Predict the 3D structure of the following.
Amino acid sequence: MSQEDGGERRRRRTGPPPRLTLDTPVTYLKGVGPARAESLARLGIRVAGDLLRHVPHRYEDASTVTPIAHAAVGADVTVLGQVIATGVLPTRKGLRVFQAVIKDASGLLELAWPGQPFLERTITKGDWLLCTGEVRFHHGRRLQPREFVNLGPGDESTLEGRVLAVYPATEGLSVRWLRTLVEQHLDALLPLVKEPLPPALLADAQVVPLPDALRRVHRPASVADARIGRTRLAWEELFCVHLLHRRANEVAREARTGTPFENRRLLTRQLRDMLPFDLTGAQKRAVREIVSDLCSPRRMHRLLQGDVGSGKTVVALFASLLVMENGWQAAMMAPTELLAEQHARTAERLLAPLGVTPVLLTGRLGAKDRRAALTRLASVEPVLAVGTHALFQADVAFARLGLVVIDEQHRFGVEQRAALGAKGADGAQPDVLLMTATPIPRSLALTLYGDLDVSTLDERPPGRQPITTVHRREAARARVFEFVRSELEAGRQAYVVYPVIEASEKTDLKDATTMYEALVAGPLAGTRVALLHGRLPVDERDTIMRAFRDGEIQVLVATTVIEVGIDVPNATVMVIEHPERFGLSQLHQLRGRVGRGPGQSYCILLGDVGTEAGARLQIIVGSDDGFEIARADLRLRGMGDLFGARQSGLPAFRIADPVQDEDLNESARVAAEQLLERDPMLSRSEHAGLRQLLTVGYQRALELFRVG
């Protein structure tokens, strides 16, 4: 290094700090050295302005001060007192405890901070401390502060309680240090903040301006005040995400050139007239949305979501027939051979009056049948192909593939879905309809699947009997299996589901393997029982499921491998042991394995559970609405647990929670759509701040909303 270079570095190091701006690196802030700057970067704080967006995740309400004399043992209180004595005391185990005694006009109270002797350097006699925590008995009353603020020496009449912000922290940075850092710079940073949203938009959304919101979240007068500020920030975050979604979706649509089919109303009308049931309003709406997509010059990329038994397959058949009556081919892919066979049987039954016979392609086909299937797909005749991943194998060639329907789409990888999409004629991409039986609230679906249009089936077809669901304690086990046996004697079938395959020393859970043997030797002796779990070879699993479907097996003792299963109309009882080990949506999916036929069906949740788990299970007992259950499950378990972190595609929102903020999310979505209808390119002058916000603050969100 030259002398000149070294001198320049010294000048930069020793020169006056730059004037504080929102873009000032945190290394120039007082008390922030290289190590702390590195820790701040882990929290996403690299420049001074990032401090404002580092929002507290909760608050300690220390606004109501309790006189020290009234701080009773066992009470959680906030006290304000002046330090009259301090000291560090060692314990017999070698732990050093910093102690202080504070007083107010009513009395004295001892404070203790185990393992924090360094506080002796910052808390001295004469300081006023605002402390919150539980009062315990230890040679008298003692409070171990959960949170505290050193207000320094001063006049008691000017001091008061306050709401304490609790910030997300990281190793090397305490909550108190972060609170102090923000407080030191808040007055200088807030005047630099400019409102990026037009006043009319703020008024319509009924949220406060940005500088006011930031002041409220960092220095709230009350918890309600902080909530007002957070609402503005959460709404802005959701609004920007929906703007980016919609813009990205529009761009993707323009790039997705497809085949504009004509709604000829030939096969589709015949199917409607010959259906043995009426379509629900939701099915009719979904069909209209899909027909509109198929007749557009843009390629369809739509998600059809609906509860178990809501009629997704019939909607997919209407889409397939529209493509076929235009002389093209359709393919429906399912994750298992059994489900593919079921779809093929359903299609064959409903389409037989139209003279349409689907082609089934799975790995089980013999060589002769496979060659016949491949020949039909390679010819130019319109055809509906139904199959598994066998549909996208290298030797499968479609002559004119116009539509791909993928059932339980989350069970296929991105590469598998793309491989089937590449089977289009002359490399052209076919229209794509994805289906899922995991229902989620519509506004959340639009947040989850940003690059998809979403159709929702939220009505149950008429004639389906509700499933009677009950929770029974362990003491009722004998009666439960007596009931199961009575259903078997009446010619019905049953499932018994367990959370684990085999016993483990780490848990005392009943397992499928052990309980299968116990049931066969005990309450279900003499009946035809089979064991099914994920460790069995796929062929063996399929053989067992076929035998159960055909009535050769009366009871299936299983794990959650049956969660996405096939229809067995004769199965009327579902017993789920250790129901507290399953999420609500998973319990609902399992329950959906029964109730597929005309007979009354039952779901019995069996086992002793705690108060909290019991209250959670009452949600399943009291509701058969998959959307409401999913909403409750999302609130209880979180989005990552329900969908899987990568599968959900959800970004790590810094402030908003699309589940807890469902109403806010819907408001933001509507506002984004209306704004883009008025100004699609955000080119108006009043949207300059919004364009800057999207470019700088939220552009990375685009990367987080891809489902492939």
